[in-house]
């Protein structure tokens, strides 16, 4: 407890943070094994908040929490959980509670829930579904991972394109199984190909005799069922879509994607980019030490190879360094500045590729700009560091060498910072994943080589 | 042209990328000064795509494009443009075209458009608006920057809470000035305080006599008008909101925020985080060299100070290095591995703070995990590098020193990687902005000090 109090003091509380007032009654209920108190404490919480809380507590507390919550456990909580924790929670749930929990979910939520589970857990959940839902889920799972087909819901509202507003309203009134969330009525031709859509707001404000065709939105776009979900999220954000019909290869309507799902994907893709740029693969805060070590080790191994390469360069100049130890003192500055400048350029390039802003129209201009920026920044720091180097070690030529190496390395950093991600992207490798290692290898090797090589020529 | 062709070969084309077939007719029209051809080429494009194209071409082409497009220029294009380019385009637009363009925008789009403009351009646009719109925009501008008040639209549909479905539908039919996009009817009490909302889908499928009160959604949440837009975006993503009423300090309804705006904010905030983590402040691909230099220089300057600090540490061990040059060869490895491990930890921590997943409930457990991960990874690489160091320079004790320094630095990296962002967050400094510099300072200084210090004790 004393430990938690201190944590409370360190962590800044803010809006929507699970604060002590929320968490304390839950933890008390778990400690006392009081099922009713736990249910009461969870009652005002959104499933997403309950899921966050389950992620934040330790393993034992989590299992006890799930067991005490019992019958009340809601399928939406499972949807909101991180993968690792999700598997644990499913294992801790009583099979009947699990079956009950998933039965209320929409088909796209079930797909999202089970696509990353082990086969055994997947079957457990599929068996719990009604036959029609099960078929829908299995069909969605037949589409490629991370495709629009996995993301879409099959529940939707479509109408023949020749209907009028009154016809549509009567039709909707007659059906009580409308989707939980829908924002458009999709117009389809006789072969079920979407030809437009009308917002509910327009339908409601139009006269009953208005043809639906007269109310269609300009923003209408269909999404191919095999499209990558990252592109789907891009389309929603770029074109301000609220929902979009998904079509198969014959352009026939097979589902609908709504903006909330697209927003969740946008969020995940960003998260992935940030973590990949930092050399952290997948991973969440609730992963255990072993999982975290396993996720980060490969990146550190790549960095080790990079670092050894740089060391091999330094090794070539051992006699130079032995003759002039100041070089050993100053050489990390050149490499470090190059690494930072390279990271700046590559991050801008990786983002621009992700947002489709770096294209053949502006590639050369961007490269020229990065090189120019590298040169200008290099020159500015060359003057500063040249002076420092010259004064610190009372050797003017050392300052000149440092300055020249700085300019060379920052220009190379700008060039590599754009070219490496662009080439990786062309090779269909995620530039966020691999650019960092390549670019810092370049700036380390060039930095040490330029600095020590120039020193060997000029100073000895 | 030859240059562009090569760019075409380097850049991977994909979905939603502005490809040559789209761009070529536009550039041809500009080159030939053919206004009609340009209008025809732009006709099938979404304003967001026209904006992207304006960002990607060079300055001269952009100005000519804007002038040739003339009267057809749409206000939505302005909304979609990056800030820097936006100012240029506004300056290039004929005042009458500009006035016409902004008049069709919703109030929240006008606010978004002008809030970052210079006073002169801001007034130009405000003057173009109808008086009622101008008042609405000025009122929104009176709320703090990056608050819900700036983000919300004032166009909304509200109804007294005692109405039934038929009453609402008749009311909507009678009004032809309904907002362009709306998804809920907000129920308000007599003092205009929102008490719930009903989706349009539910209204349409319910009988006319159903009380609205019976149809309200569980997901209902209000947003305080002063709430930070980052928190607004978080709430939409966390609670799967589609729209949310915005309330003033007396809980009275003042506007509505819709998910598409929240999605755009989420995207911007992520972009900002990624760029800040990489030491790139604001900035876009269309910035000029001078602007880019200015944005990146401060970060490189901070890094320079960091690097000099590390050099000062090395300087303390000049005689040790002079006696044993292998130390100079190997020392960057220790610093580099520490820097990478620290960046991994800090990125995870910065993200977890942004997503509100790092709280007082799990801070200590996360710190313990990061330290443990640092130790395990450190130990693994210690063995590998210890062997390399010992064999490379035929000095077993050098291997031992390298291994020990590696473990120390990776443990410290894990600790600093969590604590630095958490403390910065507590101090209300964006951890994405400053963590990197602090953490790499720590890992550089500790890395060099541990390695060279141990070497001084053990090897000499």
From TrEMBL, chains A, B:
Belongs to the SLC41A transporter family. It comes from Maritimibacter dapengensis. Residues 212-272 form the CBS domain. It is a multi-pass membrane protein. The chain crosses the membrane at residues 297-314, 320-341, 371-393, 399-424, 436-459. Homodimer. Acts as a magnesium transporter. The keyword Cytoplasm does not apply. The lineage of its organism: Bacteria, Pseudomonadati, Pseudomonadota, Alphaproteobacteria, Rhodobacterales. Keywords: CBS domain, Cell membrane, Magnesium, Membrane, Metal-binding, Transmembrane, Transmembrane helix, Transport. This is Magnesium transporter MgtE. It comes from the Bacteria. It is found in: Cell membrane. SMART domains: CBS, MgtE_N.
């Amino acid at each position: 407890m004393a430990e938690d109090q201190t944590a409370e003091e360190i962590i800044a509380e803010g809006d929507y943070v699970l604060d002590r007032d929320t968490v304390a009654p839950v933890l008390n209920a778990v400690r006392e094994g009081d099922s009713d108190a736990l249910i009461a404490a969870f009652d005002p919480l959104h499933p997403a908040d309950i899921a966050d809380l389950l992620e934040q507590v330790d393993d034992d507390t989590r299992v006890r929490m799930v067991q005490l919550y019992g019958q009340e456990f809601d399928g939406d909580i499972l949807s909101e959980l991180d993968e690792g924790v999700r598997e644990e929670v499913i294992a801790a749930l009583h099979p009947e509670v699990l079956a009950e929990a998933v039965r209320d979910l929409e088909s796209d939520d079930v797909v999202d829930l089970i696509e990353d589970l082990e086969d055994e857990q997947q079957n457990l959940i599929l068996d719990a579904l009604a036959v029609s839902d099960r078929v829908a889920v299995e069909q969605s799972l037949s589409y490629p991972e991370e495709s629009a087909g996995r993301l879409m819901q099959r529940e939707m509202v479509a109408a023949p394109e020749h209907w009028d507003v009154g016809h549509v309203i009567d039709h909707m009134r007659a059906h009580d199984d409308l989707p939980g969330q829908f924002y458009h009525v999709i117009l389809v031709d006789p072969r079920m190909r979407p030809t437009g859509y009308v917002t509910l707001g327009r339908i409601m404000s139009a006269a009953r005799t208005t043809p639906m065709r007269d109310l269609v939105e300009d923003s209408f776009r269909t999404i191919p069922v095999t499209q990558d979900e990252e592109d789907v999220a891009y389309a929603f954000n770029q074109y301000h879509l609220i929902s979009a019909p998904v079509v198969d290869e014959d352009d026939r309507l097979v589902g609908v994607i709504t903006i909330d799902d697209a927003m969740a994907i946008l969020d995940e893709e960003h998260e992935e980019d940030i973590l990949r740029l930092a050399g952290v693969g997948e991973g969440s805060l609730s992963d255990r030490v072993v999982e975290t070590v396993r996720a980060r080790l490969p990146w550190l191994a790549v960095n080790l190879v990079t670092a050894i390469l740089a060391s091999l360069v330094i090794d070539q100049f051992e006699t130079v360094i032995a003759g002039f130890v100041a070089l050993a003192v100053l050489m990390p500055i050149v490499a470090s500045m190059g690494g930072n400048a390279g990271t700046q350029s590559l991050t801008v390039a990786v983002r621009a590729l992700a947002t489709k802003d770096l294209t053949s129209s502006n590639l050369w201009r961007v490269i020229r700009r990065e090189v120019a920026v590298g040169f200008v920044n290099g020159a500015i720091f060359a003057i500063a560091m040249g002076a420092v180097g010259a004064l610190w070690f009372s050797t003017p030529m050392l300052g000149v060498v440092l300055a020249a190496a700085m300019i060379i390395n920052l220009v190379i950093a700008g060039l590599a910072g754009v070219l490496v991600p662009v080439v990786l992207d062309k090779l269909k490798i995620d530039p966020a994943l691999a650019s960092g290692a390549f670019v810092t290898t370049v700036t380390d090797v060039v930095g040490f080589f330029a600095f020590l090589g120039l020193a060997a020529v000029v100073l000895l």
